[in-house]
Amino acid sequence: MSIRCFLLCMVSIASSLPAASQDIVFQDSFERKQLGDDWLVILPSFTIRDGRLLGHEEPERGHGAVCRAPVEFQNGKFEFSFRLTDGQSFNFVVNDKNCKEVHAGHICRVSISAKLVRISDDREGAMRNDLFAALRDPKQNLDRRKVLKDREILIPNTLAADQWHHVSISIVDDQMSVTIDGKQIGQLKSPGIAHATKTDFGFTVVGNEIEFDDVRMSR
């Protein structure tokens, strides 16, 4: 058999093999009435309505609504759909609840609003204890963009109001990348993202209401 025929046979065999399945470690399509034990609601309010997860901030608490899925990992791919119905923005946040060097265990995040996407290394950026305090100290009067120059990026991105959008977020070692509706939005390479012991991921909602659906994490 000639080399050319051999190669053609190998291509034919490879194309007939089933695609490798993803290792899905968490998924939720919210087809039930109660949120249950798969999610931890840290700050209200999160509810299920018509097969969707609704996040609603209670302004008097001074913090966005927070819920987390307790899954341990280092790297992963996260996919979900969202709709900015009547909310200002939301954060997709990754944490290590046992990490005491950062505020509230925050490791990295993607913040999404109708006009902007921000990708952040919290571990070595705005949530690291010393920087967290310094950025809130009026006496220091720090320029946030200069202080966090290599720890977060801001990307203008316009999203249609009251429409469903699909996001894919990938964390591989020290790099986090974001795709929305099939469009590559941006990526950040920063050392804190590689933090080895991540214990949960989830959403923080700012504003009256944002909807989520079809949440999935795979490795």
Termini separation: 40 Å
Count the DSSP helices: 3
Low-confidence stretches: 2-20
Main β-sheet: number of strands, strand sense, barrel status?
Answer: 8 strands, antiparallel
Q: What fraction of the residues are assigned to beta strands by DSSP?
A: 35-45%
What features would you describe in this structure?
The protein is mostly beta strands and 219 residues long. Helices cover 11% and strands 44% of the residues. It has three helices and 15 strands. It has helices at 3-16, 129-135, 144-147, and strands spanning 24-28, 40-43, 46-49, 52-55, 65-69, 76-83, 87-95, 106-113, 116-121, 152-156, 164-172, 175-180, 183-189, 200-207, 210-218. The protein is globular and about 50 Å long.
Characteristics of this structure?
219 residues, mainly beta, seven-stranded antiparallel sheet, 3 helices, 15 strands, globular
List the helices and strands and how they pair.
Blueprint (H helix, E strand, L loop, with lengths): L2 H14 L7 E5 L11 E4 L2 E4 L2 E4 L9 E5 L6 E8 L3 E9 L10 E8 L2 E6 L7 H7 L8 H4 L4 E5 L7 E9 L2 E6 L2 E7 L10 E8 L2 E9 L1
Antiparallel strand pairs: 1-15, 2-5, 3-4, 4-15, 5-14, 6-11, 6-15, 7-8, 7-14, 8-9, 9-10, 11-12, 12-13
The gist of it:
The chain is mainly beta and 219 residues long.
